[in-house]
Design brief:
Blueprint: H1 13-17, H2 22-29, H3 44-51, H4 54-66, E1 84-87, H5 93-97, E2 109-112, H6 114-122, H7 126-129
Antiparallel strand pairs: 1-2
């Protein structure tokens, strides 16, 4: 079992991959509602420039290939829409200004779908429930055959 205190340790891709299920990985990565903490504010242009850089596009392609385009790198969970690359340990404008190693470190990056990305940032797995596929069985919608 992974031993840590909330928000007081550095998470990693390798450690996340020790967890087999999507739910375990989600719980490991979720940020517990830290959205709303001012990260870029009026300096939002900085992260937009960062995400357009050639260096970012290169590492993004590497991460997509490494994770086979699968959500949270769970092999039976392919992303069929836009693939987002999530920083496992959130970045700040200081990280961009100082060219922090965590910007391009594959150990700090993982493929996610938009819903998973939002759910991770809000720490709210209920966001994921709306898109969950329901396994169908014969006659499951026929009231007199239950």
């Amino acid at each position: 079992m992974l031993n840590h205190k909330m928000n007081s340790f550095i998470k990693s891709y390798s450690e996340m991959c020790l967890l087999e299920s999507f739910e375990e990985r989600f719980n490991y990565l979720k940020l517990h509602g830290q959205v709303g903490i001012d990260t870029f504010g009026f300096d939002r242009y900085m992260n937009q420039n960062f995400y357009r850089s050639a260096e970012w596009r290169q590492i993004r392609s590497y991460v997509i290939a490494r994770d086979n385009g699968c959500d949270l790198a769970v092999q039976d969970n392919p992303i069929y829409d836009t693939i987002y690359i999530h920083h496992i340990n959130p970045i700040s404008k200081e990280d961009i200004i100082n060219s922090s190693d965590k910007l391009f470190d594959p150990e700090n990056l993982v493929c996610v779908s938009m819903d998973v990305h939002n759910a991770l940032h809000y720490g709210d797995s209920s966001i994921l429930e709306k898109n969950k596929v329901v396994e169908r069985i014969p006659n499951d919608t026929c009231p007199w055959k239950k």
